[in-house]
């Protein structure tokens, strides 16, 4: 080729991916290529700089350069090495094809010999193939390394929001964001927040993504679906036990999944929100009690969808007042409460031995699950199970094990949890009368649900069936407010 027709493009590329870590910088490549152009008396038409991996086709700068070559703006390429041009078979094939058709007359590399002869094109094909093999092999090695890490309980990638990467240790809770992640789950599990409301609340509290960017609704959905916050790691569809510190419990995570599933179901729109809608049944016909607004007041009444019903309307504030009265009735006398707390503490000490037996049984169950997981791996390696069957069975066992571990951990931290619940129940009874007037209608309704079930309105009066411990109080007359009888019983047990 005559010197006056030697029009070349300079192409440089360096990505941030692993395969290019040892490659010279773009400025170094440019300096060397310009020096080669002067030495070879080559006219440089344009310079192309790309900061993107070449392991897959679709590089915009590279494609623009080839398009301009096809338009005869240049007939040669200067690059530092063939692997700068292509690390995949598609782009490598394009270069070879343009050489075959004569659109590319020359390729020049400071580190590699190439000319448009059959031998030169063969050597170029070998160079492209080696580049692709390097990328494929590197990718496989990285995947293998990542899998080995997750099997050892170490998260191998960039830490998810709420964690930070710790060199040699995987990930650890972020001192600022981990508490916010926990509160995100705690807020969502109440069912009172949509994903959009969660986003607004916690973005305002300072929870941010990469480069301090604001989190989108989809980011919060991913957070709430990610089991990594429970100590488990989902990697390539498989669940692994992590060594990192959990931010939330598996129980809270599972409850959030239930809330998300419930919220995803279609529901009717356009209904005004009322506090007691769908909560009560009619005591006469059994139909639901609904609420509607008339002249600025909310009224509850039977839907009367089954049989003729004689029940009348009742104002919402009357029902609210009756609920407060029912809550106040569960207040226990001080003497009873003190005696019950003392008895509860005595029972607590005698329970210790039985609790230790439970702990040992739980540990044995965890060991059994470990054995089953090992057997699953053996079955998969011996081709007795498909990869899909292995993953499905293993994920179930790992989830079971995580639940048992959390039960054991909770037990070891609070062996007296049952007794604390009893004490809390007694204190709740003691405080019910005082707190009933201070709570909002929604809070009182929440406590009302704890007291009983089968909530009825008949003759404009609320009734219910007390639950468990509350039923005991009802049977003894506490719900009826018989203070004289209560005092006599308290004296007999003091």
UniProtKB/TrEMBL annotation:
Pfam families: Recombinase, Resolvase, Zn_ribbon_recom
Transmembrane segment boundaries: none
Keyword Mitochondrion included in the entry's annotation: no
Domain Resolvase/invertase-type recombinase catalytic: 7-153
Domain Recombinase: 160-266
Coiled coil (UniProt feature): 387-414
Domain of life: Bacteria
Keywords: Coiled coil
Record-level Gene Ontology MF annotations: DNA binding; DNA strand exchange activity
SUPFAM superfamilies referenced in this protein's UniProt entry, alphabetically: Resolvase-like (SSF53041)
UniProt protein name: Recombinase domain-containing protein
Organism: Candidatus Yonathbacteria bacterium CG_4_9_14_0_8_um_filter_46_47
